[in-house]
Amino acid sequence: MCGIICIVSHIHDTSVDLLNKFHIFKKYISNRGPDYLGIRSHSLETCNLLFAASVLWLQGKSMAEQPFEDDKSVFVYNGDIFGGIPDNLREEDGDTKLLFKMIQNSNNIPIVLSKIQGPYAFIYFDKIELKLYFGRDIFGRRSLLIGKNHDELVLTSVAKRSLEYEFIELPSIGTFCLDLKTNQLYIFPWKYRNKNFESKLFEIKTFLNKEIIIAKELSSEENNKYLTPSIEQLCLLGEIKNLESKKVFEILLNNSDWLSNVIKLKSLLEEAIKNRIATQPKYCKNCIKKRQNCNHSLIGVLFSGGIDCAVLALLADKFIDNARPIDLLNVAFDEVKSYQTPDRLTGLQTLEELRKIRPYREWKFLEINVTQKELDEQRKQHIADLIYPLKTILDDSLGCALWFASRGKQESIISPCRVLLVGMGADELFGGYTRHRAAFKKQSWLGLHNALNEDWQNLSHRNLGRDDRIISDHGRQLRTPYLDENVVEFVQGLNSWEKTYPSNDVPKGIGEKILLRSLAYYIGLKKASTWEKKSFTIWIKNSK
Ligand SMILES: Nc1ncnc2c1ncn2[C@@H]1O[C@H](COP(=O)(O)OP(=O)(O)OP(=O)(O)O)[C@@H](O)[C@H]1O
Ligand SMILES: NC(=O)CC[C@H](N)C(=O)O
Hints:
Number of domains: 2
Pfam families: Asn_synthase, GATase_7
Bound molecules: adenosine-5'-triphosphate, glutamine
Number of helices: 16
Radius of gyration: 23 Å
Binding site for L-glutamine: 95
Protein name: Asparagine synthetase [glutamine-hydrolyzing]
Pathway: Amino-acid biosynthesis; L-asparagine biosynthesis; L-asparagine from L-aspartate (L-Gln route): step 1/1
Largest sheet: 7 strands, mixed
Strand order of the largest sheet: 4-5-6-7-11-12-13
GO molecular function: asparagine synthase (glutamine-hydrolyzing) activity; ATP binding
Number of strands: 20
Strand content: 15-25%
């Protein structure tokens, strides 16, 4: 993952002053991109600017050093293009150079961004017009914070607590543009208005104490039409009432419409996973410096053993050279019970299932055991900075779990992979939360439909920025196949009853995410397809 930052200073800082300011952020920015660190500064009449970027090289034949600069512009980019641009162009030059050129050659940056598929956070300085563009992709898969103090504005992938700055997460509601001549701030909203648009706009206006001009009229609100299942669909769901799991999946997969959705989902997920595996140099973390060919793991899966990551791991197998292991990173905290947590137990059972289905593959299961002492130390000294500006106990707990999991360290063994596949987004897309069951109980399909919409629209600001800051800290790239644009488009286009059935007529562990579970069953994960979602344990004993 790359780390990007821009400091806009309205006082007469010298470039040395600006560099000193950058030093406050340097450690966390550098951690994100271990392959290169570049810095540029600029003096304008109205302000001084510093740009810096650390690079985790993933695309292109050779590493693209950042910031990108020529006489027209400066560009820093943390992202991955997976579609929207011909593959051969990306393979040659890499996505940073391509996007830089596309933005430069266009007079409409938001349109360029709307065409690319993949996560991003970026900052682009137009030297001619003296405009600073910045933003995050529509799902918010990459972090970008906006911070201020009396004289400065900072845009950065990551900050830390207790600085002389205050920060908020930049909302993923469109592309922002700061006119450095007039100091006016504009937003180019996405084509579809998210219900959070107004509240997020208000939040950032209040934070900056500044008007934000909406640069383009919003199109009408998304068509969230509510339908009821047809008689045929109700009959199908009626058939699976009170049955054991094997029977449920057999009945569903015997239905041609249901099967066709399963097959479509499989093919879209495979394409997303294939892209996310292929798009990287063929060196592991240890061998990349010397460009030394190796057979070490390139891909790891954050592996709780639950259905979301089990499906990812099994589908990934097809696209990874047989000689390379796949690392399954499983974290556990409870030292009192010898780390036999629900996730460890499920992880080991799903590992057994993967080994049976794909016996020739080396599945490297890393038992990442974290003592209370280490948890307390790392959390206080380090992880809380990455979570910032979020601060709830849930952020704290999830953040710690993800940080230790993605560090990939089991005693002296450290996973060498540079890319991690993670199951984020599956619960929002397929309806996996307990609250979906409650909504269905209260208000049937309408309640469920509203709850799913609500969760989907909250996803960009609820956890994705935080997860990006946490995982990238180990110089590894977080990739989320469930949040691939084509997967999202397909699943969002389905009716609620085609993807989840959190009804009391069907046991827990089957009804939730029933489409994804059907896919798991279909590809052979007979046990993992029925694992119930475990409620997340709050590990943090003392949150002060
Ligand atoms: N203990 C853990 N060790 C490693 N990774 C984890 C752990 N817990 C969660 N994760 C990662 O975070 C993602 C989201 O967690 P979550 O618990 O929602 O999903 P899951 O366990 O795969 O499936 P399910 O949602 O059905 O439980 C997982 O897909 C996995 O990638
Ligand atoms: N990891 C990053 O965000 C770096 C940018 C670009 N995708 C590259 O691979 O070089």
